[in-house]
Amino acid sequence: MSYSLQMYCRMVLHRVGCHLLKKTHNALGPPIRRGGAVYSGACGFREEEIREKLQAFPGGSINLVKQESGIALMTINNPARMNAFTGTMMLELQDRVSQLEEWTEGKGLIVHGAAGTFCSGSDLNAVRAISNPQDGMKMCMFMQNVLTRLLRLPLISVALVEGRALGGGSELTTACDFRLMTEGSEIQFVHKHMGLVPGWGGAARLVRIVGSQNALKLLAGARKVDTDYGERIGLSDGTVTLQSAESTALGEAEKWVSAFTKGPAPVIRAVKKVVLSGRELPLEDALRTEKDVFGTVWGGPANLEALARKPKHK
Ligand SMILES: CC[C@H](C(=O)O)C(=O)SCCNC(=O)CCNC(=O)[C@H](O)C(C)(C)COP(=O)(O)OP(=O)(O)OC[C@H]1O[C@@H](n2cnc3c(N)ncnc32)[C@H](O)[C@@H]1OP(=O)(O)O
Predict the structure, then answer these.
(1) Cα–Cα nearest to 38, from 239, 167, 225, 175
(2) Which of 76, 117, 264, 291 is the most exposed place for a label (fewest CB within 10 A)?
(3) Which residues does residue 151 pair with via DSSP β-bridges, in sequence order?
């Protein structure tokens, strides 16, 4: 059997196996996958094992502020290490994503780093301590689950990149719907220089954002992406320039995203859901999801109000 046929068969068997197990467990009790996670106990992922390991690498924090405007601010906060992700920060990120999943009034999210830089990837102290393949795979599954749930939130999300986004930090930017960069900032998938490939889902998402040609250049060349190059290949959705002495990059990013979050939460969240299903599902499944989401807003308060207003879209 050829290698690719073997891979295909393994993938199909794995998917069917996970699907069947998922169905069984769902029938027996609570759902085994939280939010939109990829790996569950049914796939042999033991989350508790890696949680315990990550707990041993403390420092920094992931801060979350849910604002009245419906836009939340998430801060990657470990400035002494250029906002590198310690083990406890990975665990906190999971908690923050869970909080956002429960935030029914939410419409938008800005992810940014503390002290003028985005994130320098995994904390190298933790990486050295768990540099065996078994632990690496567990960390990878944990982070893929968390970042997949982040991307699947019914919120319009933006990564605001100031300074550097390196390694895992560059992968985190791809788990948001949009990326904004400030002048002088850089995104770099440094994995090749570390003898690695992305493991937090960054490669799969990057291909969907910039196409496989550009993704190959960024990963195989470990190329630095500045604001111009970022916009040219579609990795960056805009360059933030400060409008006045009082303005801040975060303030400008909030203004930028509020153009998309203006309006009632159920409508904005519905928009994100139909785009997400279009992005991730085969066409027929996406069409069915779109129909279901449409049903949640048709005849709803915002729809009835608009009909009563008789708006003209000039
Ligand atoms: C590759 C994938 C993998 C994954 O998927 O898990 C990773 O993400 S591995 C991590 C990849 N990132 C790096 O290798 C970053 C290495 N660091 C740098 O290149 C530089 O520190 C840089 C460019 C971020 C900042 O350079 P600058 O000259 O401005 O500052 P310093 O080098 O003096 O850094 C200040 C302070 O931060 C510590 N630091 C920075 N990044 C990390 C990190 N990822 N882990 C742990 N510590 C980090 C650096 O060591 C300095 O600490 P100090 O105690 O002063 O030496």
Answers:
(1) 175
(2) 291
(3) none
Q: What is the pLDDT of residues 211-244, one digit of tens each?
A: 999 999 999 999 999 999 999 999 999 999 998 9
Q: What is the pLDDT of residues 287-298, one digit of tens each?
A: 999 999 999 999
Tokens of 246: 């009082």
* Ligand 1 atom at minimum distance from 166 CA: 12
3-state SS class at 247: coil
Cα–ligand 1 centroid distance for 250 (angstroms): 23
Give the pTM: 0.91
Angle at 54 between CA 53 and CA 59, to 5 degrees: 140
Residues shown for the chain: 314
Token duo for residue 108: 């938008």
21-35, 92-106, 115-129, 154-168: which has the minimum mean pLDDT?
Answer: 21-35
ipTM above 0.95, yes or no: yes
Q: Where are the alpha helices (DSSP H) in the chain?
A: 3-28, 47-55, 87-101, 124-129, 133-151, 168-173, 202-220, 227-233, 249-261, 265-280, 283-297, 301-309
